[in-house]
Structure formats: C-alpha cells, structure tokens
Amino acid sequence: MSRFYARRRVSILTALTGLIASVALFNSPTASAALPTPVSAATARTYLASLTVATEDRTGYNRDLFNHWITISGTCNTRETVLKRDGSNVVTSSACAATSGTWYSPYDGATWTAASDLDIDHLVPLAEAWDSGADGWTSTQRQNFANDLTRPQLIAVTDNVNQAKSDQDPAEWMPSVTSYRCTYVRAWVQVKYYYGLSVDSAEKSALTSYLSGC
C-alpha cells in the first residue's frame, strides 16, 4: 500500500471514529434533561438556611388528600404529560396513553421502552410534604403540589426504584447515580422553599452535606 493510500485510510478511519463518538454523545441521556432545571447550588444553600427546622408529624395523613394525576390538557393527565415530557420519540394513543418511546431514569441510570416500567415520582413525597406542613393546606394547595409541572417536583423514573424510595427524605435515601445527587438536592430544597415546608434536623444535615459538594 502506498503512503498516500495509507494516510488516506488513516484519515477516513479517524473521521469515522469521530463521527461515531459524536453520535454516541448526542444519543447519550442527560440525567438532568427531564426535570425542570432546579435553582443553583448557591441559591439552594441560601434557601435551605431559611427553612424552618421542625420535627415531622404524620398524624392524619392519607394519600387521597392529595388529588393527583388531574387532567392537564385534553385527555392527558399529569402522569401522561410527564411521560411525554421526559421520554424520547414518545407516541401516544387517542386517550394520551404512551404506546411507545424511550425513557431514561436518572435515579438509577436505566433506560426503558415501556411506560409501564416507569412511575412518576413526587421528588418531595406527598407524605413528606404532609409531615412538614401540608397538613395545614387546603385541598387546592395539596392538589397543586401533587401535580406541579413548573417546579422540579415530578419526574419519570424506574418504578421499583421509586417504590424503594417511598416517602424517604435525603437523610434516608438518595439516587444511586451519584452524579445526579446534586440536581436532586437542589430540586428538593427548591420545592420545600417554594411551598414553605419545614425540614427535620437529620434532613437539613444531609442536604447541607450534599450541597457543599455541588
């Protein structure tokens, strides 16, 4: 093989390698893409410092007190709206049910192609909200919280991961994808601040620690 053709072959291989890398980068899921962008770490630290520290109280809690998955538009409820927002190439039926698509769960790094494998997580759980102030809200306020698409409060994630998280706060549970934890705690603090919810001492300590590394 002549030097000309050898150099040309190397050049073509280099170009192809770069193209493949670019495609891979383009198709790689971005962990924070699904959630409305939370406040910065600096702002979250300021918010956290202003939150009331109080002991949690679950007296009287019932999930049904938070009217969730209300109609958002046409035949689409909150769950279906988040699935469409958080997925790629999502196809829906006339009833707004997701029939196909691809979803990346930033909590555990899993990718799914069936909507049935996903839950819509309330980042600040409904029970946690009740414990820290929502017990005194009106039914309208609780409904707004349970269906909030504006704040970083709702996100599509792997169903069994959401179930394992349950109603735990950041002192008790965090996403296994460590690179997502900064996004998670910034969102948690923003939601609690916006809704005037308190934090308990262990929760504040955990949030302070995670935010210090953001």
TrEMBL record:
Signal peptide positions on this chain? 1-33
This protein's record includes keyword Signal: yes
Keyword field: Signal
Q: Which domain of life is it from?
A: Bacteria
Q: Which Pfam families match?
A: GmrSD_C
Which residue numbers delimit the GmrSD restriction endonucleases C-terminal domain? 112-208
Instruction: Name the InterPro entries on file.
Output: GmrSD_C (IPR011089)
Its recorded name reads GmrSD restriction endonucleases C-terminal domain-containing protein
Task: State the organism named in the record.
Answer: Streptomyces resistomycificus
